[in-house]
Amino acid sequence: MIQLYAKNRMPGKKKQAQEVTALREDMSGWVTTLVPLDKEELDLFSLSQDKQVVQTGMAGVKAKGVFTTIFQEPVVAYSYKRYLGEKVNELLLAKTAEHEYIYWTRNGESTLSIDGQEVGKISADRILYGAKSGKEIARIKSQPQDNFLPVSVGNRDVGSLNTQLPSKEDALSQRAFEFIPGDLSQQEEQLFLALVTRELVKQGLPNK
Q1: How far apart are CA 154 and CA 74, in angstroms?
Q2: Angle ∠(50,75,190) on CA atoms, nearest 5
Q3: CA distances from 114 to 97, 191, 192, 196, 206 (A)
Q4: Residue 208 domain-assigned?
Q5: Alpha-carbon distance 110 to 185, whole Å?
Q6: What are 122-149's pLDDT values in tens digits?
Q7: Residue 47 Cα distances to 129, 194, 204, 206, angstroms
Q8: What are phi and psi for residue 3, nearest 5 degrees?
Q9: pLDDT tens-digit map of 26-75
Q10: Using CA atoms, how far apart are residues 182 and 167, in angstroms rounded to an integer?
Q11: Which residue, 64, 72, 52, 60, is CA-closest to 93?
């Protein structure tokens, strides 16, 4: 029991890179098949997951899967690990064909890195604050509109996230996003995906 706890508790900073590497290797076979994301693919992004696996037990939670479009094109792969502890301690690694997103949560406080660069901290109410400025740079708004949560980057709404839980029967036909502007910039797309991917993964995980 002691060995099990030690193996699955939150790693120190020196071992965090090893944990990221382990999750990266866990889904390495899926990454090469991912379809590049553009405005069209975002519009087709579904709530459906392919190859989804969720493992729960005394040692914590592990999960992985691939989000697809409504045409079953793989667009985002992820691997997740929740560690033991009274507060939330977890690691999420998500990859598109072009970018890698790493989310560390230690004692309930979350940080985000994109392509190896620290972007900032994500608060409990889903606001992303810049690592250097400390100011808000993106957020998922708290009040849904017709089952969709608006997502903003800076002062602009850049899309909305479907809050309905996917059903096994029609998850593939349920679009994950709406209201994505046609002139979405590359930075807006990255920050939008950073916030919504984390939420989509969490929808498929047990609460405890």
Answers
A1: 29
A2: 135
A3: 13, 9, 12, 14, 26
A4: no
A5: 25
A6: 999 999 999 999 999 999 999 888 889 9
A7: 27, 16, 10, 17
A8: -65, -40
A9: 999 999 999 999 889 999 999 989 889 999 877 689 999 999 999 999 99
A10: 29
A11: 64
Label residue 32 exposed, middle or buried (CB < 10 Å: 0-12, 13-18, 19+): exposed
Q: Which residue from 126, 143, 107, 98 is spatially nearest to 202, judged by alpha carbons? A: 126
The full length of the chain comes to 208
Range of the domain at 68: 2-203
Residue in the block written with tokens 């992820």: 78
Tally of domains within the chain: 1
Residues in CB range of 61: below 8 A, 6 or more apart: 54, 55, 80, 81, 82, 205, 206
Q: What is the pLDDT of residue 86?
A: 79
> Number of H helices and number of E strands within the chain?
5, 12
Residue 14 CB burial class (10 angstroms; 0-12, 13-18, ≥19): exposed
CB-based contact 77:85 (threshold 8 Å): no
